[in-house]
Amino acid sequence: MLAGWKEDKENFQTAEQQFDAYVRFYNAYFERPADMRLGIHLCRGNYIDSRHFSEGAYDKIARSKFTNLNVNTFFLEYDTPRPGGFEPLKFLPKDKNCVLGVVTSKFPQLEDQREMVKGVYRAADLRC
Question: Residue of 11, 22, 69, 114 with fewest CB within 10 Å of its CB?
Fold first, then answer.
């Protein structure tokens, strides 16, 4: 995906600069009273048969996303191998939280319950 970004002559910034611009844009609209909590899900796009417009693990954007985006809660996709492992959660500040999306709506097969529970415990270990 980033190779395509670099090849596009219309892009006048690096992907990192563009991501930072999005964070600033979102934060400008997220101004709110101190007692109002806000959560966000930045979707990769999931269409029929799991077609999507974005892919890759959270690793490259986790530190900036979790620390600089002015929200309290992140709704994260962890229902396929596409987002990678839970390691990026170590960058989630203690005053923020996340909801792990480990159940998919992309495919008709049910997930293995034991595997989902093990994954949630692995994620929790990174937060403690």
Answer: 114
At 60-72, the pLDDT tens digits run: 888 889 999 999 9
Largest CA distance in the chain: 47
85 alpha-carbon distance from chain centroid:
12
Q: Where do the H-state alpha helices sit in the chain?
A: 2-7, 15-29, 62-68, 113-127
More confident position, 55 or 22? 22
CA count, 13 A, side-chain hemisphere, 103 = 4
Q: Cα-atom radius of gyration of the chain, to the nearest Å?
A: 16
Distance of CA 26 to the CA centre of its chain: 15
Which of 120, 123, 105, 125 is closest to 43 using CA atoms? 105
The one-letter code for the residue type at 105 is S
**β-strand partners of 97:** 73
Q: Is the pTM of this model over 0.85?
A: no
Per-residue pLDDT, averaged over 86-104, amounts to 91
Please write the tens of the pLDDT for every residue from 4-28: 777 888 888 888 888 899 999 999 9
